[in-house]
Fold this sequence. Notes:
Elements: E1 2-6, H1 13-22, E2 27-31, E3 51-54, H2 59-70, E4 74-76, H3 79-85, H4 88-97, E5 105-110, H5 111-117, E6 124-128, E7 137-140, H6 143-152, E8 157-162, E9 169-176, E10 179-186, E11 198-199, H7 209-220, E12 224-231, E13 237-244, H8 254-265
Parallel strand pairs: 1-2, 1-3, 3-4
Antiparallel strand pairs: 5-8, 6-7, 6-8, 9-10, 9-12, 10-11, 12-13
Helix pairs in contact: 1-8, 2-3, 5-6
Amino acid sequence: MRIGLITPEPGHPLLAGAAALLAPEHVVESLDPTPPGEAAPVPVPRRPADVYLLKSGTPHAVGLARELERRGAAVVNSAAATALCQDRTEMAGLALRAGLPFAATRTVGPLSAWASAAPFTAPVVVKSRHNRKRDLVARADDADALRELARAWPREPVVVQEYAPNNGWDHKLWAIGDQVFAARRRSELSPGGRGPNVPLALDDLPSGWAGLVHEVGAVFALDVYGVDIIDTGGGTPLIVDVNAFPGVRGQSGAPEALAALALRRAPGRRP
């Protein structure tokens, strides 16, 4: 079987670990979705692999995945599901319509225009509308802090969520197929800034949280994904973000789960 990795970083620990497990019996090849020139399309293989792992959410990567799907290749996650998770407006809309405990989210357009016009009523979390590396995620407690953000990110399209009081820890939950992994880390919105991930046993999660992760996967049609949850008191979860194909670094068993998932998702394989 031929398994493709759609990524500019085939050496990423999760991908490299899964590839090493697959290589003895299968052909693993990487496909860099970065275009060779500003306007040049990414070359599509004449003979697609049996299944691709889409570890990139850039427009070029999603476009490449769509074309591979059109040619009959299986792609994990699908191009449509990946694209949905790159737009926080669409993400929040789907989650709330499905009844998931997702943070109420407003789309306000370019940050500078909104910050200069909107009356400030409460601490808010301001996020880039488009989910990507090094995007904007920041808390503004007053109008001065909001204006400071606007000066740094004037044209950035943003969404706004009211700040929900919590214990200062983010719970990072990841799923690869049916398997769930968990960690916690200090929130990047906390005064000390974000800390390292601390692995967390599933038994240490509040009741129902692992099941909530599977529910998110079903709603978003994702196979490999992350769910960021904060505890708003007494184990009450609030989902603040959903990510397609996150890194899942430092989680024992994650490469094995990804290798097994790739084989299950290949056309003609028994699910």
